[in-house]
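>> received
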Amino acid sequence: MYLTKSYNEVMAKRTDRAQALPGFPYISFGGAEALHMAYHFKVLLRDNLAEAVYRDETRLDKSTVDMANKTLRDLVAKDYLEKFTLGHSFGYMYSLGNLGYDYLGIPYEENEIGQKDLIEYYAVNRVFTVLCRELRENYYLEWQTGWKDHGAVCIVWSDKKRSKALKMYIIEHIRPRIDQSRFELIKDLQKKITTKTIEDYDLKPTLIVAVPEMENFMLEVDEDTTNNDIALWLET
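>> returned
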C-alpha cells in the first residue's frame, strides 16, 4: 500500500537526492513518489499527486497543480510513466512505463487495462484526492487501488508508524446507470461492508461509493445511512 507523508516530511525531502539512482535519468523526490503511487493506484491522476506530494499549508492551488504537471511531464518524457486518456472529461491518467518498472525493481507487467477497469480506477482514485485534501494535514493515509475484491481501500492512521488505525474506508465504483439499480447495489454493499469488523484493524469500514459522471460523485455510507439519504444523493 502507499502511505502518505506529512507536509513537513515532504518539505524536508525536496532537496534529497537519495532517490536519484545511478544509471537512471534524474528523478526528483516528487517523481519517485509518483512512481510508487502509480504502482499502488494502478493508474495515477494528476490531482492524486498534487494532493499527496505538492499540497501544503502555504502553496496556492495553481502552484500545487503546476508542480504536479511539471513532474508528470518530466516522468513521461523519460519513459518512467505512460500517459493516456479515456476522453476529454476524464483528463490524463498515468501508468508505469518500462523505466518505471525498472526503477522500482519489479518485473515489467504486460497488462493492458480495459476501459471498464480504467473507469473504475478513475472513479475510486478521485476519492483519494478528496480524502487526502481533507485529512493529510493531520493524519496518514494508506491507500491501495484494487484491494482484495474491492475498488480501493484507505486506512487513516494516527502516525506514520501506523500504531493506531482511526478509520477504514472501502471504496466502490457504482457501474449501473439506472438509479434503481444503483440504489439496490449500494444497499447490498452497505450490508456486506459496514456491518462487519475487520479484525486486522479492529474497525468497521465506512463504505464510499463513487459515480464519476455525477457532479457530487461520492457518498459515505455507514450502518446508519438511510434509504432516503441514498435516494437523495442519487437525485443530485
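>> DSSP finds eight helices and nine strands in the chain.
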